[in-house]
């Protein structure tokens, strides 16, 4: 009996470890290629409009399809749903490599199509993984395994931009795109040995009407709590400015500071390191009695870093300051999502959470593409540094704009008092 338990435990561990390794390898290669495409667009076009449009294309499938992805995932074989997006993403990367190898044109519009197809494929991967991990993991180890997966995601975010920039300096974009095919082949090979339950919910249908009804219910529940509704609306306004600036870091390095792709990769990696450190600070010291204080402080920190970045002079010394400011910006970023999520989780019963979170995601996501469409062309007209300055001032104002409303600034205090 003891031997059987040990054997089962080893099998479960092997299953989980293979899944995590496969996702790390496919994730790092896919993200490296994604960054390489952005580096290529930045170097070839030097256009804020082009970069903003590329970022918007990468966001739209997630915004539009995410509400329906969960229902779709429930109806099909999970292993297939992990394999197919990797193959599709690798396939379009391979086709783009072939085209660029045959033609010396920049092929901007073809790159937009490739980014869109990859984004559609990846939209279904995350909910698939989120459903697989609890299905193959013992309940008492679920938190630990989710923690491991979070570490892998953080490592990918840190390594991919630097790795992409490093390789971009040594090999052609045509060769670099083929890395995605290698990653997909390794990932698919490892997935072959992973035992994933093949349960499919055949009774579940794509209930579009129900999905929209749930979203309406979520909006109504959010609106019923005035303080929280104000916090979310002002957060959505901040997204209008934060998202375009986040897409313009590479152009700031190349165009304003007149440096190389490798330098842009360092800035992106430092931003990701800052995000990781911010997440660790929250996990270690996150038991604040009033979460609105660190939440609003994050607006002030992010707005200040954007503003100072926009005021820098185009020198190498200023670039070093810019890189440090990028790391501080990254550090403040997790405070928005994490603290808002924890307040929402405490505000509603578990049966309503999925509806509320889905509606909140829609509210916070939609301003991003609007900002990208408006601010990208403005960056080409005024200069990318001026966009950092304008966005920084706008984000700074979000803190006092929230504080003005008593129901918003006291929301967490009242929430903890009532609980």
UniProtKB/TrEMBL annotation:
Cellular component terms per the entry's GO annotation: plasma membrane
Subcellular location: Cell membrane
Residues of the Major facilitator superfamily (MFS) profile domain: 15-410
Keywords: Cell membrane, Membrane, Transmembrane, Transmembrane helix, Transport
Annotated GO MF terms: transmembrane transporter activity
Stretches that traverse the bilayer: 20-41, 53-73, 80-100, 106-124, 158-175, 181-200, 228-249, 269-286, 293-313, 319-344, 356-375, 387-405
InterPro entries (alphabetical): MFS, MFS_dom, MFS_trans_sf
Membrane topology of this protein: Multi-pass membrane protein
Main location: membrane
Annotated PANTHER family: INTEGRAL MEMBRANE EFFLUX PROTEIN-RELATED, MAJOR FACILITATOR SUPERFAMILY ASSOCIATED DOMAIN-CONTAINING PROTEIN
The protein's name in its UniProt record: Multidrug efflux pump
Lineage: Bacteria, Bacillati, Bacillota, Bacilli, Lactobacillales
């Amino acid at each position: 009996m003891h031997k059987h338990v040990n054997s089962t435990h080893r099998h479960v561990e092997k299953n989980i470890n293979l899944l995590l390794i496969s996702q790390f390898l496919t994730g790092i290669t896919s993200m490296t290629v994604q960054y390489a495409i952005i580096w290529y667009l930045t170097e070839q076009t030097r256009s804020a409009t082009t970069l903003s449009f590329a970022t918007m294309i990468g966001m739209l499938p997630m915004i539009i399809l995410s509400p329906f992805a969960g229902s779709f995932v429930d109806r099909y074989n999970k292993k297939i749903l992990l394999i197919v997006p990797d193959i599709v993403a690798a396939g379009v990367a391979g086709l783009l490599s072939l085209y660029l190898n045959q033609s010396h044109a920049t092929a901007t519009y073809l790159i937009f199509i490739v980014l869109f197809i990859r984004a559609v494929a990846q939209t279904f991967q995350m909910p698939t993984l989120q459903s697989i991990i609890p299905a193959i993991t013992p309940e008492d180890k679920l938190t630990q395994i989710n923690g491991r997966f979070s570490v892998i995601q953080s490592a990918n975010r840190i390594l991919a931009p630097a790795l992409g920039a490093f390789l971009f300096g040594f090999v052609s974009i045509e060769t670099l795109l083929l890395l995605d095919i290698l990653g997909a082949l390794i990932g698919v090979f490892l997935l072959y040995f992973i035992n994933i339950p093949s349960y499919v919910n055949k009774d579940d249908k794509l209930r579009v009407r129900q999905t929209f009804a749930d979203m309406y219910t979520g909006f109504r529940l959010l609106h019923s709590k005035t303080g929280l509704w104000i916090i979310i609306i002002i957060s959505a306004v901040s997204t209008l400015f934060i998202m375009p600036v986040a897409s313009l870091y590479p152009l700031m390095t190349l165009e304003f500071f007149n440096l190389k792709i490798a330098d842009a990769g360092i800035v992106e990696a430092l931003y990701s390191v800052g995000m990781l450190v911010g997440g660790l600070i929250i996990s270690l010291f996150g038991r604040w009695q009033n979460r609105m204080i660190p939440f609003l402080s994050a607006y002030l920190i992010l707005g200040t870093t954007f503003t100072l970045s926009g005021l820098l002079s185009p020198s190498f010394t200023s670039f070093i300051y810019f890189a440090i400011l990028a790391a501080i910006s990254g550090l403040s970023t997790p405070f928005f999502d994490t603290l808002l999520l924890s307040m929402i989780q405490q505000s509603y019963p578990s049966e309503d959470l999925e509806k509320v979170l889905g509606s909140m995601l829609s509210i916070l996501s939609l301003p991003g593409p609007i900002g990208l469409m408006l601010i990208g062309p403005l960056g080409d007209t005024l200069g990318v540094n001026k966009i950092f300055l304008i966005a920084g001032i706008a984000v700074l104002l979000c803190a006092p704009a929230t504080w003005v409303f008593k129901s918003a600034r006291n929301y967490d205090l009242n929430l903890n008092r009532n609980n």
